[in-house]
TrEMBL record:
CDD domains: HAMP, HATPase, HisKA. It catalyses: ATP + protein L-histidine = ADP + protein N-phospho-L-histidine. It is a multi-pass membrane protein. This is Signal transduction histidine-protein kinase/phosphatase MprB. InterPro entries: 2C_sensor_his_kinase (IPR050980), HAMP_dom (IPR003660), HATPase_C_sf (IPR036890), HATPase_dom (IPR003594), His_kinase_dom (IPR005467), HisK_dim/P_dom (IPR003661), HisK_dim/P_sf (IPR036097), Sig_transdc_His_kin-like_C (IPR004358). It holds the Pfam family HisKA. The keyword Transmembrane applies. Residues 139-354 form the Histidine kinase domain. Its EC number is 2.7.13.3. The keyword Transmembrane helix applies. It comes from Terrabacter tumescens. It is found in: Cell membrane. The lineage of its organism: Bacteria, Bacillati, Actinomycetota, Actinomycetes, Micrococcales.
Length: 354
């Protein structure tokens, strides 16, 4: 309203100045040119009529301008305040922990509509982050509960002398302590990876060497389960990468493929070059993934099937770490799957070396 008032005042002041300073002399000069005598009484009346008409016109214009300014201000302010009130209410709801709050803005113009869309996208990401946090807390507690409960039960048994400290008991304690230590190490690794604090020793390394090393390290596990591991097409290329970290990613992808591929299935390890990147592919013929699972598979502790018993040797963060390692190399890790029962394909893309 202040801005509109300033515009109205500036316009009226300008028009009044023009009418008072420039208008009368011009009007008087034109009357003289029209043949009216400078001493004629009609001249004074005509000029007075001109001044009064100018005053009335400016007064009417001022009233109309003020009314228009009020109307425009009311309309524009309403279009601004209503969506802003909706956004404010949604922000307050989010502040109270309701991450499902959304702002619906339909008639506020493209700028506020874009703001509302950005707000809703932020709310969605915060909601996903909160769900991940809750699942993380619950899953960490779940992962720790079993070994802690086992150790506590055996400690009670040792105190009551119903359990003897022998080799099986010692082995059980050792394995559960190692499981807890592995969980702590994995959580620390996830934190470092997501914060970009991974130490990389990059070098130009042959792709075939990476694939063959990864295959050699997991071959015994595949043989034991009865799953074929084949080395498919392998591009004659080099990548700029940390061989140890890339080996960690491939080992994780192969272990994941083995876990979800039944006996008699097949896993193919291959590499292709496309433009300035090399794609290392792990393709299995196992359980596959539903479309809604593809967007969550790299999240910490994500379970595609909540009823599935997790491998006791894993902590559920391997794919999260693998994706962070890929991103630290300036590459990416993606997954595709035709659907349940049709296998999955993980692709690690890395920059081509010289």
């Amino acid at each position: 309203m202040v801005a509109q008032g300033a515009v109205v005042v500036a316009g009226i002041v300008t028009a009044s100045a023009v009418a008072a300073l420039i208008g009368p002399p011009l009007f008087h000069d034109h009357l003289l040119r029209a043949g009216m005598s400078a001493s004629a009484s009609e001249l004074a009346h005509v000029e007075q009529a001109y001044n009064e008409a100018s005053f009335v016109s400016l007064a009417v214009a001022l009233v109309i301008a003020v009314l228009c300014a009020l109307g425009v201000t009311w309309y524009v302010a309403g279009r601004l305040t209503r969506p802003l009130a909706v956004l404010t209410a949604a922000a307050h709801e989010m502040g109270e922990g309701n991450y499902a709050a959304r702002a619906t803005v339909s008639d506020a113009g493209p700028e506020l509509a874009s703001l509302a869309e950005a707000f809703n996208a932020m709310a969605g990401r915060l909601g996903d982050a909160e769900q991940t946090r809750r699942r993380l807390v619950g899953d960490v507690a779940h992962e720790m509960r079993t070994p802690v409960a086992t150790l506590a039960a055996y400690l009670d048994g040792l105190d009551d002398r119903v359990v003897a400290w022998d080799e099986p008991t010692s082995s059980l304690f050792r394995s559960n302590v190692e499981r807890l230590a592995r969980l702590c190490d994995d959580m620390s690794a996830v934190s470092r990876a997501e914060e970009g604090r991974l130490e990389l020793r990059r070098s130009n390394v042959e792709v075939r060497e990476l694939l063959e090393t990864a295959k050699r390290e997991v071959r015994s596990g595949f043989s034991t389960k009865g799953v074929r591991l084949e080395l498919g097409q392998c591009a004659d290329a080099r990548v700029v990468a940390d061989p140890e970290r890339v080996g960690q990613v491939l080992a994780n992808l192969l272990a994941n493929a083995l876990r979800h591929t039944p006996a008699g299935g097949e896993v193919i390890l291959s590499a292709t070059q496309s433009g300035g990147e090399v794609r290392l592919v792990v393709q299995d013929s196992g359980e596959g993934l539903e479309p809604d699972q593809l967007t969550h598979v790299f999240e910490r502790f994500y379970r595609g099937d909540a009823a599935r018993t997790r491998d006791a040797r894993g902590s559920g963060v391997g794919l999260t770490i693998a994706k962070a390692i890929a991103q630290a190399h300036g590459g990416r890790l993606t997954v595709t799957s035709p659907g349940r029962g049709h296998g999955a394909t993980f692709t690690l893309s890395l920059p081509v070396g010289s």
